[in-house]
Design brief:
Number of strands: 13
CATH architecture of the largest domain: 4-Layer Sandwich
Order of helices and strands: HHHHEEHEHEHHHHEEEHEEEEEE
Helix content: 25-40%
Largest sheet: 7 strands, mixed
Distance between the termini: 94 Å
CATH class of the largest domain: Alpha Beta
Structural class: alpha/beta
Strand order of the largest sheet: 5-4-3-2-11-12-13
């Protein structure tokens, strides 16, 4: 009588495990695998193949139903919604970038915007990155805010469109990109909470409502990481929560991402640079705003300053950031 280590029960179990492990493999190949793994059980690959044919019903229907049930009831992991981070890379021709963020229309500072535009034209920039919070969108926030007038929201959308048309006129050859900021994202969150029946209608989402495709502006949702060479570009609200940033916002950003990155959001000009043990330099920057320095949510704050950034990207991905502050109507 065969013992428990060489008997048909052990062989049967091995064959069934191979059928589950290699469901799409041929019987001949499975026979070779069984023989290679267990030469002490099978005299040759053909003996193993014959047993496989018997178990799978290829030599009769006796065991076909039992094998089919085993295959159908193999335990599986549940479906997964796991997502990878999404990175988008600016075209290589976008090597001379003007970063404008936190305009907060209709609370923009037109004088500061004109200074930034003048600088960009002087330096012949070929790419405009709108780093988020182009609109203020106060009525869509969950925070307390005065109720808007009947025509205010529509007017502010028109102002934002006018702002982009102004930039397109000033930089007719430049490519345009818009990174979604928290104020920009308030609209979709408002739809989810207050008007879910409209959420599936794209017309009410910011890119479609403003017809950004027609304006020639590529819009990136807040979860996307936009890359200019080796530099990550974010609005910043997903790294630094709220406008009350650390003493050095750029250092807070460094501690969060530990890679080259630039953000808006905090309305403060700051930078932080460190070197790794390999001698590689990592830099992070936060950029000033182009809007009022005394918003309703922080009327007496003193940390905010006006500013923008100029980014130069080399062919190998290396880059230089000129983080420019505006004070008393002039660039410093």
């Amino acid at each position: 009588m065969p013992n428990q280590f060489t008997g048909p029960t052990v062989k049967n179990k091995i064959i069934r495990e191979l059928l589950l492990e290699f469901p799409n493999s041929s019987k001949a190949n499975l026979g070779k695998i069984a023989f290679e793994r267990h030469p002490h059980l099978f005299d040759n690959p053909e003996v193993a193949r014959t047993m496989i044919r018997t178990i799978t019903g290829a030599m009769g229907g006796k065991n076909r139903k039992k094998t089919r049930n085993i295959m159908e009831h193999k335990p599986q992991l549940p479906p997964s919604n796991c997502k990878e981070r999404e990175f988008q890379v600016l075209p290589k021709e976008c090597s001379n970038i003007l970063w404008l963020s936190d305009v907060h229309i209709p609370n923009q500072d037109n004088e500061a915007i004109e200074l930034a535009v003048e600088y960009g034209k002087k330096h012949d920039v070929n790419c405009i990155v709108l780093g988020g919070d182009i609109l203020d969108n106060t009525p869509f926030t969950s925070h307390d805010a005065p109720p808007p007038g009947l025509d205010d929201v529509r007017t502010w959308f028109e102002y934002a469109k006018q702002f982009i048309e102004y930039l397109k006129f000033q930089f007719p050859k430049a490519k345009f990109f818009w990174i979604e900021g928290n104020h920009d994202a308030w609209i979709k969150r408002y739809l989810i909470k207050k008007a879910p029946i409209l959420f599936s209608d794209e017309y009410y989402h910011l890119p479609q409502r403003m017809k950004l495709d027609e304006l020639g502006v590529k819009f990136f949702a807040e979860h996307v990481v936009l890359m200019a060479g080796k530099l990550q570009m974010h609005h910043g609200h997903t790294m630094i929560r709220g406008v009350f940033a650390p003493v050095n916002a750029a250092r807070g950003l460094f501690l969060r991402v530990k890679s080259n990155a630039i953000i808006g959001h905090v309305h403060t000009t700051s930078h932080h640079v460190e070197k790794t043990l390999k001698g590689e330099t990592i830099g992070t920057w936060s950029v000033g705003c182009l809007c009022t320095l005394a918003p309703d949510y922080d009327p007496h704050g003193t940390k905010h300053n006006l500013g923008f950034a100029h980014i130069l990207v080399e062919k190998n991905g290396d880059f230089k950031v000129n983080n420019i502050a505006i004070h008393d109507g002039r660039i410093i």
